[in-house]
Amino acid sequence: MSHTNDTHAEHDGGAIAEIKKVTIILSVLTIVELILGFWMIGMESKALVLGIKGTIVILMMAKAFYIVAYFMHLKHEVKNLIMTIVVPLTLFVWFIIAFLADGNSFRNLRNTYNPYFKEQSTIKVEQPAHGGSHGGGHEAAGAAGAAHTDSAAHTTDSSAKNEDAAKHEDAKH
Amino acid sequence: MSTTTAASPTEAKLWGGGKSPFSVEYGKVMMWYFLMSDAFTFGAFLISYGTVRFSTNGWPDPNVVFKSFPFAPEGVNAPLVFVSVMTFILIVSSVTMVLAVHAGHNMDKKGVVRNMIWTIIGGIAFLSCQAWEWNHLFHEGAWWGRNPFINADGTASSSNFTNFFFTITGFHGFHVFSGVVINIIMLIMTLTNQFEKRGHYNMIEKAGLYWHFVDLVWVFVFTCFYLL
Amino acid sequence: MSNEATIIEDVHVKSVTSHDVHEHGDHGHHEHHETFLSKYVFSMDHKMIAKQFLITGMVWAVLGGLMSVLFRLQLGYPDASFPFLESLLGKWAKGGQITPEAYYALVTTHGTVLVFFVLTAGLSGTFANFLIPLQIGARDMASPFMNMLSYWFFFVASVVMLSSMFVETGPFSGGWTAYPPLSALGDASPGSKTGMDLWIIAMSLFIVSSLLGGLNYIATILNMRTKGMSMTRLPLTIWALFFTAVLGVLSFPVLLSGMILLIFDRNFGTSFYLSDIFVNGVGALPNEGGSAILYQHLFWFLGHPEVYIILLPAMGMVSEIMSVSSRKPIFGYMAMLGSLFAIAALAFLVWAHHMFVTGLNPFLGSVFVLLTLLIAVPSAIKVFNWLTTLWRGNIRFTPGMLFAIGFVSLFISGGLTGIWLGNAALDIHLHDTYFVIAHFHIVMGVASMFGMFAGMYHWFPKMYGRFMNNTLGYIHFWVTIAGAYLIFWPMHYEGLAGMPRRYFDFSIWESFKQFGELNKFITIVSMIVFAVQILFLMNFFYSIFKGRKVTSENPWEANTLEWTTPIRPGHGNWVGEIPEVHRWAYDYGKDGKDFIQQTTPVGADESTH
User: Fold this and answer.
1) Is the ipTM of this complex over 0.90?
2) How far is CA C336 from CA C316, C320, C332, in A?
3) Three-state SS for C272?
């Protein structure tokens, strides 16, 4: 592409300045995200946490915009190219809404009609000691495994489940 | 249709055939649409992660899980620190990549080489960080199908936290790895003057698009796993 | 943008164009030193790759069709024993009766190969490769090499899928949708073992193939149109193939993600799709917290656009063939474009209408109902435009034209039942019954097959420089369309009576005994229709070598660019310069002329359309 040779004198300075500007913006956005992240730790108010998470998502979108628009140079492309990229991406809106809404609805369904599922989310367990369970193979440390500190002792899956069920019986009484 | 096209001569010039309507070569068009396609792959992963999270009552607290960094004393509690380092590494490598592309536009071979080397170093550094983090988590008992971390509310967790974490960061890491390989190939091609012979550095630009996309995905992965 | 930037862009554009031209000028020289391997096997000529896709698709169509005959045999004659089945299927048909496992494997493989290998690769792979460069005026695809890779990925996928039929435990047998837990747990059924692994590998390779192809089609259509070929002068085939490619590029990756998660569930102890599962003989599984519905969402996010990936190329070809054979411009070109776009966009928004009975949130379901029913609008626009194109046309009933008309008929019949199924309330009754089978076979399966046949009859002279036999073509058409309706129409009644799909044997149900004779009838018709397809294949292969020779460049008197090439175009398509385009593709019966080719300059006193 010979064109840059003719014009790169002023083109150059502008482009470098733009790269610098975008670098600073991205750094600032990341730092703000991190500050918000630190602030959230141990926060009690659910509403505030939700608000912060919303803010973080907006900041994330802003970062994505700067990367795509300036680093990937999309902003300086022909408008048609921009449109053919951006328009299909709007499909994500319904993609995200429908998936998450159905996930949420699935949880509500299970909480309403699946007493085992509901119960699982009320029983507090101990955090198992670190470093102990890797290489343990098949115990999967899922809801069944993590509920027991001695999960590694289970040899068959069905016994894990049975004991689990027994434990829940105990918890009820 | 020529009545409408006559009304907007620039439009007709762009779309009239015989050349690219976007004023770009076909390789770049393909790269863009490939990245769109890949965005849907990652999008599907992250949305699946969100869906499972929404369909579960409890979820582990990332600040409890990711709280260590290399050479730190045992039991250190420093959430978000290490991942911030990783994020900045990737952003900086993206910046050097832009500079390499820019140098390519100016047919500045030296600038391309210098910036490509920095980009490759950044990519390798990121991969090393990820390797350390995976290794660390593995030694804490986390792996596909195994989740030692309980939910934030103290209830038993399912293994899906680690399942998604390793799958998605692994898939992203695979992209970073292939990006590094592509960049190394680009560096070799630059050093052997292939682009000088062609008279343009378009390949660097396409590799750059891919590299920025990897950075872009990390923005989402980072947010979804470490912050939300 | 500053003036300077515009100038820069112009320079850029020029160098891009000259680069392309130069690159393709080179192709002309390759022909002198072509070997058998580079001409027929690892060819980078889009026309040869198209033929490769077509022949591979045909092999799969025969296999898939044969499978349907076999399982129809079981449904029609559940108590009879056919010794030839044992010699064909061995242990899968002990005593001449298909086992339930074999039945499910046949149904699953039939669905998978027909949907993906025949109607996706075989249809859009063939005609996108063949028609895009020829109709837009390009010497080849943007990247001939990627195009070749696309075919070979498809070929390897085919081999893997085929090999899955010969493993000890049989091919996957959990339905073409591969829902977990059947697909996620090796212990769930014999077919869920090695067969499923091979199924996933084949599908992943297929996704790569379709991605390589799709990117190429999009880039070619956008970047490589000849001078004067503006987007609104493109024939509708190209527009349809363009949207098909976009759908594939955006939706297949989602299936890829779903497949990757499935691989982890199968092999690495994760539980993305698994929760609360008890396997007979194994006990309760440790997998907790996953959601099988998630897989369905991911699958249908591809699966629904896939329906249009199959249908749109057929629509495009039908539009083109109808206009040519009615000697009339296509009615409502812009409306056709708009409806193609609307269908492509809506295709992404309606996937959960396949999932109304999964426990989908009813409110969410109602949104999906609304979006689904919206598809009726662009579909109806297309149907009316086809009918009005025929209206008072000077119709030439070539076999291609008959199949195009048959497509419209089937599209209407099958589309109307789509309105039933799109309603969540009705779907609760009709879900997973033969009503659904009837609906999607008519509207998607047979209709697209008709589009494919139409395309094959119509472009056969361009592919091989000969005509196919017309008489055999007419027999093929009339038997196939009558057979299609005779097979699938009765299934609506079976479905309304609640007869479920994917059942091995209905004779033990009192409520379905009444359909015994009907099932026998359907089976007999399906065998006749299959036999006629073999007749078609004989016609096809015979005509390649012995068919009536094409004597003029433009046997159908059509306007589009492929008919300006030599009768047997070489690699590079045009001898000399690529022609310039001066008008749209549908100037039929204009100003007293029967047809005016796109390359004809617009006269001084001529109005443009």
Assistant:
1) yes
2) 9, 11, 6
3) coil
Residue of C nearest to A165 (CA): C284
Q: What confidence score (pLDDT) does residue B11 get? A: 57
As a whole number, mean pLDDT of residues A25-30 equals: 93
Query: Which of A3, A109, A142 faces C288 most closely, judged by CB atoms?
Result: A142
Domains in chain A: boundaries: 3-78
Query: Which residues in C lie closer than 8 A to residue A163 (C-beta atoms)?
Result: none
List CB contacts (< 8 A) between B21 and chain A.
Answer: 78, 80
- Is residue C286 very low, low, confident or very high in pLDDT (cuts 50, 70, 90)? confident
Whole-prediction pTM: 0.89
Model pLDDT, residue B85: 92
pLDDT category at A12 given cuts 50, 70, 90 is: low
Q: Does A142 touch chain C (CB under 8 A)?
A: yes
Instruction: Convert the pLDDT of each residue in C18-28 to its tens digit.
Output: 344 444 444 44
Which residues, listed in sequence order, are joined to residue C93 by a DSSP beta bridge? none
Facing C294 at nearest CB: one of B52, B145, B171 = B52
**Beta strand C588-590 pairing with C593-595:** antiparallel
H, E, C per residue of C219-246: HHHHHCCCCCCCHHHCCHHHHHHHHHHH
Q: Does domain B26-227 match CATH 1.20.58.60? A: no
pLDDT by residue (tens digit) across C216-256? 999 999 999 999 999 999 999 999 999 999 999 999 999 99
Identify the CATH number of the domain in which residue C418 sits.
1.20.210.10
Contacts of C260 in chain B (CB under 8 A): 45, 167, 171
A88–B156 C-beta distance less than 8 A: no
How far apart (Å, rounded) are the C-alpha atoms in residues C95 and C61? 28
Distance from CA of C418 to the nearest CA of A (A): 22
Closest alpha carbon within chain B to C231: B15
Pick the range with the lowest mean pLDDT from A82-91, C6-15, C266-275: C6-15
* Domains of chain B by residue range: 26-227
Chain C residues whose beta carbon lies within 8 Å of the beta carbon of residue A160: 284, 286
Interface test with B, best of A35, A49, A67, A117 (most B CBs within 10 A): A67
Residue C52 in any domain: the answer is yes
Nearest-angstrom CA–CA distance, C565 and C130: 13
CA distances from C67 to B150, C62, C84, C98 (A): 50, 9, 14, 12
**Contact residues, B window 75-94, toward A, CB-based 8 Å cutoff:** 79-80, 84, 87-88, 91, 94
- Domain residues for the domain of C546 are 394-566
- Count structural domains, chain C: 2
User: Is B105–A1 a contact, with Cβ atoms under 8 angstroms apart?
Assistant: yes
A18 — contact with chain B (CB < 8 Å)?
A: no
Query: Which B residues 126-155 touch C at CB under 8 Å?
Result: 144-146
- C112 domain-assigned: yes
Sign of CA dihedral A53, A55, A60, A64: positive
State how far the Cα of A154 lies from the Cα of A158, in Å rounded to an integer.
9
Is C272 a residue whose pLDDT tops 80?
yes
Q: Which of A126-135, C172-181, C438-447, C492-501 shows the lowest mean pLDDT across its residues?
A: A126-135
* Residue C378 maps to a domain: no
Look at residue C490 and tell me if it is in a domain. Answer: yes
Which of C187, C208, C227 marks a domain boundary?
C227
| Per-residue model confidence (pLDDT) at position A11 | 55
